Amino acid sequence: MNLLRRALAGAAVICLFFALAFRPGAAEGQASEKIPIILDCDIGTDIDDTFAVALATISPELDLRGITTVSGDTRARALMVCRLLSAAGRGQVPVAVGAAEKPPQALRGWQGQYANHPAVHNKRTAQPIKESAVEFIYNKLKAEPGKITLVAVGPLSNIAQLITEHPDCKPWIKRLAIMGGSVRVGYNNQPPIQAEFNIRADAKAAQIVFTSGIPLTVAPLDATTMLKLDEAMLRRIFSAHSPVTMQVQALWQLWDQKSAPIMFDPVAVTLCFNESFCKMEDLHLDVDDKGFTREGKGKPNARVATAIKQDEYLKWFVDRFAADGPKTLPREPGNVTTLIPRTGMPNRVHVFEDYETDIEKRWWMSGKLETANVPPGSKRACRGVVTQDFDGATGDVKTMYTAVIFNPVPGPPMGKNPRLSFRYWLKGTDTLRVQIYSLSNNYHRHLTLTKLPQEKWESGTVDMTAARRPDGSGGPLSEGERIDDIQFYADPRAELLIDDIVLYDAAPPEEKRPFPKNFQFTGTFDTGAQGKEWPGTFEFDKKGYFGRAAKSVENPELGGPAIRLHLRGERTLGEATQLFFRYNLTGADSMRVALVNSKGKETYPVVVKGLTKAKWAETTVDFGEAKLKKGLKVDEVHVVLPKGAELLIDDLLLYEPGSP
Ligand SMILES: [Ca+2]
Ligand SMILES: [Ca+2]
Ligand SMILES: [Ca+2]
Q: For residues 596 and 585, what is the distance between their CA atoms, to the nearest angstrom?
């Protein structure tokens, strides 16, 4: 049986040899048949994996048979690959999740956001296959022994697991191309005093691979460490605006590092079909326990790129991306409307985001933190990054937009007069599309603002009832309709910054109080779970002023019936602080309202007297007398009642009042 198999394998090799030898025009590096590869990567850490995946996707010399992920968070990494491939029209390429959550390595910068997109969640993109990375590679090799080249551009954990669990597959691997190690040169062209990352991250795995006898092609630091993409090169790559280059641009923006990206990994992909940029030497490489790769004595075990024609390679690399197509830029958005004046104190604030804290960071769906270019009075804002339209049904998902998207979980219901206020900074366009998702109706509506000023911070308010679906249908946003993602889109070539998003129900005509200067917390209680979205000690009650309200419970710790509302994190107070809320109080006409820093055990109480009994009323508590210092951080509101009293609270708003 064994003999027979060996004989058959031998026959296959001979057939392959003849097939190659007698194909007219077949020469090294110019094979007319595509080279089948499976790429194992740790996309999401450094940015060069993204370029390697993209290069494998656009290179006509390669037949990309699958992508696997390694190095912790392997599922998130696989989802990133799925989104990239789907956008590139290559969603049929299988993506398998690495079983090994080792070596653990966190996603860098904001790249996790790339997998946190409705196209991924709603399965409009391809999804990872059920087979694990190792089983997927094994089955592919088994189906076509001797045909497939593996390319490993992350730690070698998956490959080591493959050949340990399935030693029979070793002879089926045509070649294993690795980005890893350093022979004579280390990082930044310095002597190799530090072991190269991929090998060091799982040195044991590397030892297994380097002693396996599998034909290896190695791209160490010697041939990769100086391959920096400068700004002009990046600009040229991104100017293609092809489906692939826009994905690369998105991930590069989310990677969010100041340094120039270094193209380590793409060299391993390139070596599968073109060695002409590199000096190749057959060497014997040993891996020590610390992950150093050293030239040893003995039979060569690796074909090693010990140098590269740096300028020539980078030119070829950039040219290849710059020539990618088709160019896919957005068309002019419709439903043009104008800004409206912002009126007084909102009737109700559904949600706000000023980007000053990380408390609601998990709700940032597109955009990254900006601390340099911020509006007056603000320390942090949000810089738009390129992403596809969240409207996958009627939006143009072939292209991308520079976008800031905030998803106020868990989708509050609107009032009669929904308004959106925000601050914005634009460069490279005067047009901004504002879009909102209706959870109730399961569609997006948008409106477009044109002729906006550029390169300065401006404030804007829009009437969200003016928003429509792209085809004009959908009607106005109506009372009680639950909304979700708040979205700002600009041209993908433009810069967009957003700050101070406030979605609110407009002030009634008789309102005299000004619009607040800043918001610290809004408590509408309408959707979401107690404890999770609404931490604290209270109950929900359906008979709120609008939707649900918070209801007092016996709280011996606070000395009576009370509502202890946790603010989900520490909120920094401004010059002055007020707390507005609507209430329905029975059994008392007074209450003690306190702002609290629970860690520091600091309590700032104010006693409120002469309150309305047994019907809905409203009050504004001024904390002027509590002598709060500017910059004080609070994380709880306590409302404590006399014995036997009961209270409902709704539409609570902690804010710094505006100037009249
Ligand atoms: Ca890598
Ligand atoms: Ca801010
Ligand atoms: Ca409510």
A: 22
Q: Measured in angstroms, how far is the CA atom of residue 6 from the centroid of ligand 3?
A: 74
Residues measured by CB to lie within 5 Å of ligand 3, the ion: 524-526, 544, 546-547, 650
Q: Is the distance from CB of 108 to CB of 75 less than 8 angstroms? A: no
The token pair at 362 is 């998990």
User: How far apart are the two ends of the chain, measured CA to CA in Å?
Assistant: 91
Report the 10 Å Cβ neighbour count for 550: 29
433 to 43, 68, 501, 595: CA distances (angstroms) = 31, 37, 14, 39
> CB within 8 A of 618, min separation 6: which ones?
580, 581, 582, 583, 651
Ligand 1 centroid – CA 382 distance (Å)? 28
CA 36 / ligand 3 centre spacing (Å):
59
Q: 522 pairs with which residues across the strands? A: 653
Comparing C-alpha atoms, which of 280, 137, 296 is closest to residue 219? Answer: 280
Token pair, residue 610, equals: 């002469």
269-326 pLDDT, tens per residue? 999 999 999 999 999 999 999 999 999 999 999 999 999 999 999 999 999 999 999 9
**Other beta carbons within 10 Å of 61:** 18
> Does residue 4 register a pLDDT over 90?
no
Distance CA 347, CA 417 (A): 9
Three-state DSSP at 392 gives coil
Among candidates 258, 281, 348, 275, which has minimal Cα distance to 312?
275
**Rounded distance, CA 249 to CA 459, Å?**
28
**Residue 243 CB partners (closer than 8 Å, separation 6+):** 87, 88, 89, 326, 328, 398
Q: Which two tokens stand for residue 240?
A: 């293609």
Look at residue 32 and give its three-state secondary structure: coil
Whether the Cβ atoms of residue 36 and residue 147 lie closer than 8 Å to each other:
yes
